[in-house]
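Progress narrative, work stream C.
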Amino acid sequence: MESIKEKLSIKFFLFLGLAFVLIQIPLIGDYFRIINTVIHESGHAFMALFGGNIESISIFMNADGVTHGTQSIWVIDFITCVAGYMISSLMAYVSFWLIKRKRYILFIDLLLGVIIINFILWVRNPYGLFWLASFGLLFLAFLIKGSQKVIQNLLLLLASVLLVESFFTAYDIFIISLLQPHAAGDATNLAQLTPFFPAQGWGIFFLAQSLFFILLGFKQGLFKIGMVELETKYQLEGTKEY
C-alpha cells in the first residue's frame, strides 16, 4: 500500500476525475474528447506515409473520426490499422512523462504541431477544420495570456483527458468487437488483414495495450504529480477507412 501511495497523488486523481466529468458534459465533452480523436487519426495517417497515401481525415462533432486512404501493401495496411489506438495510448503516456519532467514547452509544441499538420495536410471536412482552428486558437490564447499555474493546470487537464479517452475508446472497441465483430472499426479491419486472428482478439489487444501504457506510467511514478512551476512561459515566435 505504501508503494502505491508513492506512485500516485491526490492531484492526479483530482484531474483524472475532472477529465472524466468534463467529457460527460453534452457538446463540451465531445469538443474536448476530439483531442484524442485527432491523435488517433493522426497515428493512422503518419504510419500510412511509409507506403500508402492519405487522402483526408474527417473529424465529427460527436468525437468520431475517420481516415481515408488508398490501398497499399499488406504490411503498411497492418501497421496503419494498429497505429490509431496505440498512438493514442502512447501519447497519453508521453504527456504525463513530459509533465513529470517539466518539459512543458515540448508538450505544447507536440500538441500544436499535430493540430497544424492536420489543418494543413489532412482534415478537410468543415467541422474538423472548425475544431482545429478554434481549439488551436483557444490553446494559444491560454498560453499567451495565462499565468504559469493556469498553463500548468491546462496541460495536466489535457493529459488527463488523453489518458481517460485513450482507455475508454480502447475499452469501447473491445466491447464492440465481442458483440459486433463485423462492425468494430480497426479491429474488424485487422481481422480482414489477419484471417488467423479474429476481431475479438484485436479488441483484446487494443484494451491490453492501453492498460500496458497506464501500468507503465504507474510503475515509473508518472502519476505522482506535485506542485511544480513551468520552466519558462511559452511565447510565440515572429479508398480505405481506419
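Work stream C, second folded protein:
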Amino acid sequence: MLPYDSLIVVDKENQLPIYKQITNRLIGLIQKGLIPPGTFFPGTRQMAELITVNRKTIINAYEELLTEDWIESIDRKGYRVTPELPVIKPRSFQPPSHFSSTGYVSSEGLILQCPPQPEHRDTKSSDIVVNDGFPDPELAPFKEISKIYRDKGISSRIKQLMCLRDQGGLPLLKDAAALFLNETRGLNIKKDDIVITRGAQMAIYITATVLLSKGDHVVVTEPNYVFANDIMENAGAYITKIGIDEEGPDMDQLDQILKKSPIRMLYIVPHHHHPTTITMSAARRQKLLKLIEQYGFYVIEDDYDYDFYYKNSPILPLASAPHHGKIIYIGSFTKLLAPSIRIGYLIAAPDIVKKAIALKRLIDLRGDTFIEYMLAQMIINGDMARHINKSNKLYSHRCDFICNLLTQKLSHAIEFTKPLGGMAVWLKFKSRFPINRILNDASHAGLCMIGMPFRRPGDPNDNGIRFGFASLSEEEMTKAVDILVKITS
C-alpha cells in the first residue's frame, strides 16, 4: 500500500474544507500517475486512521470522487480508481531515448575492491554471528512455498514453463511484481518495464554492463556498497566519490563534479543507504532530480529493502518522479524472503530492458521458474503482504531492542543513529577502538561480525561497521553486545 499518510497532508488552517483538500490531493496523485487506474483505495476507516482525520471526512471525499467519476464503488471490495481513465502522465520509463552503448567487460579479469576482513578462527556452533543485515530464515514462508509445490495442478503447469526461453522473467511474476510495486512505490509501470534477475546483485551487474563503456565516469558515495564499486570498475569505469552525512549523499559535491565534466552514471542507495543505513532527505532527492534533468546522466537507484520501515512511512523512490527514463530502479525480493531465495528486478526504459534481457540470457538462460511462480502466487493471493506486515512488526521490535541495548551498555565505545528501517545499525566505534582490532578480539571471544567495516581516517564514517540485527534473537543480541562491552572495557 502507498504511504498515504505522507502523500496526503491536510492543512487545518486552510479555509478549504478538509474533505475537499483530500479530494484534490487524490485527484492530483491520480493525474501524476502515482495512483494508477484500477488501484483500490484503503477502506474509509483505514484511510481515516492513516491520515488522522474523521471517517466521515473520508466518506465525503470518496463521495466527491465518485460524483466526478474518478473512482468507482465495487461491491464487497471497496473503492478503486476508474480503470478507463486516460493515461494523463506518461510513464517515466518511456522516454524519447538516443541510447546506444556497448558493454565492456575487463579483459584483465575482475577488479575486486571489497575491504579485507580480519581472519577469523573457525566458528563454533556456540558462536554468535552478526551479519550484514539479512532476513531471519526462521520467518521464511516455507509453509506457503511447500503448499504451492504440493499442488499437482500448479506442479504440472510449472513443468511446462520450465522449458520456455526466458523473456526477462516469468510473465506471471512480472505482472504481479508490477502490481506490487505500483501499489507500494507509486511507480506506474507494466510488466514490459521489468526484468527479473537472480537478486539485486545481478540487476546491478546487468545494468552497469549494458550502460557503461571503458573510460566512462561513475559517481558513488563514500562509503558505498563495495560490490557495486567492483561492478562499475569491472565494466571499465572510473569512479569518483562524494560524501554522505545525516541527510544522505552530498548533492553539492555532485553538482560541482558535473560543472567540471560530464558523468555517465550515479549509483545511489537513497533508502537505508548501504552501509550507513541513512535515508536521503526529501530536499536532497529534489535536488538530485533537478541535476538529472539538467545534465542527463543515468542513475542506478538501489532500493534493496524499501519495504522495511518502522516508525514512519517511507519516502517514495526517486523513480516514482518524472526522470525521462534516466533512473534504473533496482530492488530485491530476497530481503523479504530468505538470503538463498535469489529474486531481484530492474525497471528501466524500453531500450535498456531489451538489452538487459539479451545480456541476462548469456548468464541465466531460463531463470528459476519454480521460485518465480511461487513468488507470483504469494503476491497475487496476499501472502506476500501478510508476510511483510509480520516481518516488519518483528524487525521493528528487534531494532528497538538492539538500539536500547547499545545505548545502555556500549555508549562508551560507539556512536550510532537509530535507523528509520532496514535490518542493520551502523556502529561507529570511537577512535581508541580500531575496528580491525574489535573484529579480531570479538572473533576470539565467540562473536563473528561479518557486516561491512569501513576505515578511512578523516571520513565522518571512519571506523564503522554494519551490525545486522534482523536475524538475531534478543538473547543473541544481548550476548553479542556483552562481548563488545567486555573487549572495550
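Confidence is low (pLDDT under 50) at residues 96-121. No further action is required on this item.
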